[in-house]
Structures are given as structure tokens and as C-alpha cells.
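TASK: fixed-backbone design
INPUT:
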């Protein structure tokens, strides 16, 4: 079942009980967003090939998403996006994220995005599921807010103007092209912020908890940004609306909740390249077949994605093309120039 359907059918609140005095604390969890996702007018489900493409574009060291920040926008004021864990985690591992090996590859990931009318700023909450019960569906304790028009040297302003502590994530490998550092800030959701503020944690424990919470949302952001960038290309990504009327009638007769309508989105890229074949003995050894990483280049309103490809002997097969070109329409609407956020800010680093 899709993650969006799992959340809309989730009825178990997230409640913690104190081991000291038995006090119950209700925190924001997956069930909190059941009605929000049910009412969300735009829902996308990424197929595995598109998930792999978005992750490759997002995590390749040759990709500079910030250079395309003026082309980024969320396509609606409320958007749901989800994908399978398996292909996403495979790409994370491929690009050196050691923590990816500790995550389950059998679940699903998703995010609910609240955006401004221009699609240039907003708020993101992440979700995931690993099992088959309500207790296996989770919402991140942290949320991310963003503004793609944030000037260098300033911080994005929280959409609700709440003066809560925020965290800045810095990717030293991206240098000046670090879109997370400039345009995004992370903070605990209100109920979680109050819970941790009243907890008796040491500074070291608070830092460890914050790092863990960041891991549930920060790694998803580049994939969503890449998806929105590809979605804005001309003529866009291949997509297919699912017709669920017949299935939902059958579910209704058996007393089950109807499934949500959504749009499946596919990758336009060519298939994987064939593996290498060994050369015959006695022949002169050709140039060793090797893999070349993908990288993204922008020239004006066009994006050039040099796809990961094999370089070496032609006997292993011919690469038809190494370059995919997307042409984008520059989004309309004025730029918003925010002032610096007065809330206290921390920084975490990606190496």
C-alpha cells in the first residue's frame, strides 16, 4: 500500500508516557496528518527508475543544484511526494552515505510540502513506513522551512514567524553551491520542541538526538528538489494518473477504506548499460572499461545531465549518448528578499 494511504488510514496517536510519574505527552505523529494528506490536491508517486535518477542527480558531486535555484518552485501550494526506500538507499550507498546501510530498504518515504503561492518558499514534513501496522508509520520530529530567494549571508525566514531555534545543515563538499546551507533551515516541530525543552538531557545527548532527527528529513530534501526541477522541464516527466474507481468500489464492498488518487511519475532516461565482457587472450589490451560519474551543467535555460556511463573498449557495447538535455521555462513572479532570522541557529555538517 502507498505511504499516503497508510497515513490517511492511521488512527493511532503518538503518545509517550513518562517512566517517572506516568505523565502522558501527545506528540505530532503520522496520524496527525491523516486529514491533511487526504485533502492534499496534488500527490506524486515516483517510480523506481525516477527515484534512482533523482538520487543520482542529487548526490553526485558533479551536481550543483544551487546554480538552478532560480528555476526551482513547488508546483502547488500543497504537494505530497513519495518513493520506495530500496532504490533511494542504493543510490545513497553508491554515493558514500555510510548511514544508508543501517536503514531498511523495504519501506517507503514521503514528504508533505506546504508552499507559498509562488512555490518559492514553504515548509516540509517527512514521513516513512517500515512495517504493516500503525506503529510502523512515522513522521519526522523535525520540519524544514525554505526560501529559494534567500540572499547570500542571510537566513530564510520561517513561514509562521515562530522564534524557535533552527539548525543549518552544511555540505562542505558542495562549497558555494550548497543549497541546503543558504535556502533551508531545520527545527523541531512545536510539540517536539516543547517536549525536548522540558527533558533533562545533557548537551551531548541533545546533540545526538538532533543529529538523529536531522537524518530522518535532511537526506530527502535533495531528491525532492531534483524532482521539482525535472518536473519543470519542457515537456516534463512521463506521468500516468491511476484509475482506482473499480478497485475502490471493490474495497468499499469489503468494508475497506478507498485508496487515494495520485500521479505516477517515470524517468525519461535510457536503460542501464551492459556489463563488460572480457577480451580474448593474445590481443592488445584496450583502454580499461571504467565508470564515469554523472554531473549536471546549466547553460541559460537548459540543463545538461552527463549521465553515468562506461568508458573503454567498444567491444563491451556502444553508449548511444552520454548527455541528456532538458529545457526549462523560467518561473514567473517577483523575488522575495527576506531578512535574517532572529532565532538561534545551530550548524551541522555533512562530510
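OUTPUT:
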Amino acid at each position: 500500500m502507498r505511504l499516503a494511504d497508510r497515513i490517511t488510514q492511521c488512527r493511532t496517536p503518538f503518545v509517550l508516557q513518562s517512566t517517572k510519574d506516568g505523565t502522558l505527552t501527545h506528540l505530532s505523529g503520522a496520524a496527525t496528518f491523516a486529514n491533511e494528506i487526504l485533502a492534499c490536491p496534488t500527490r506524486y508517486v515516483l517510480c523506481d527508475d525516477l527515484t534512482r535518477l533523482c538520487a543520482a542527480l542529487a548526490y553526485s558531486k558533479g551536481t550543483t543544484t544551487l546554480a538552478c535555484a532560480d528555476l526551482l518552485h513547488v508546483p502547488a501550494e500543497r504537494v505530497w511526494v513519495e518513493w520506495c526506500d530500496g532504490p533511494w538507499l542504493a543510490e545513497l550507498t553508491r554515493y558514500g552515505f555510510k548511514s544508508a546501510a543501517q536503514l531498511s530498504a523495504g519501506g517507503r518515504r514521503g514528504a508533505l510540502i506546504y508552499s507559498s503561492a509562488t512555490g518559492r518558499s514553504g515548509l516540509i514534513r517527512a514521513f516513512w513506513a517500515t512495517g504493516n501496522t500503525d506503529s510502523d508509520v512515522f513522521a519526522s520530529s523535525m520540519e524544514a522551512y525554505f526560501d529559494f530567494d534567500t540572499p547570500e549571508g542571510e537566513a530564510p525566514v520561517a513561514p509562521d514567524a515562530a522564534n524557535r531555534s533552527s539548525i543549518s545543515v552544511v555540505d562542505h563538499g558542495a562549497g558555494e553551491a550548497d543549497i541546503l546551507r543558504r535556502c533551508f533551515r531545520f527545527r523541531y516541530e512545536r510539540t517536539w520542541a516543547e517536549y525536548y525543552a522540558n527533558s533533562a538531557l545533557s548537551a551531548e545527548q541533545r546533540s545526538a538526538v538532533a543529529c538523529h532527527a536531522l537524518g530522518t528529513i535532511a537526506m530527502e530534501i535533495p531528491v525532492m528538489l531534483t524532482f521539482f526541477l525535472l518536473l519543470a522541464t519542457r515537456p516534463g516527466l512521463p506521468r500516468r494518473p491511476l484509475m482506482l474507481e473499480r478497485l475502490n468500489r471493490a474495497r468499499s464492498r469489503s468494508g475497506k477504506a478507498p485508496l487515494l488518487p495520485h500521479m505516477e511519475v517515470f524517468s525519461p532516461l535510457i536503460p542501464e548499460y551492459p556489463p563488460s565482457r572480457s577480451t580474448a587472450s593474445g590481443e592488445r589490451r584496450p583502454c580499461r572499461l571504467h565508470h564515469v560519474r554523472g554531473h549536471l551543467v546549466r547553460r541559460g535555460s537548459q540543463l545538461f545531465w552527463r549521465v553515468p556511463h562506461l568508458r573503454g573498449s567498444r567491444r563491451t557495447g556502444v553508449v548511444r549518448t552520454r548527455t541528456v538535455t532538458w529545457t526549462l521555462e523560467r518561473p514567473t513572479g517577483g523575488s522575495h528578499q527576506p531578512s535574517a532570522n532572529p532565532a538561534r541557529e545551530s550548524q551541522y555538517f555533512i562530510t
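COMMENT: Residues 3-232 form one domain.
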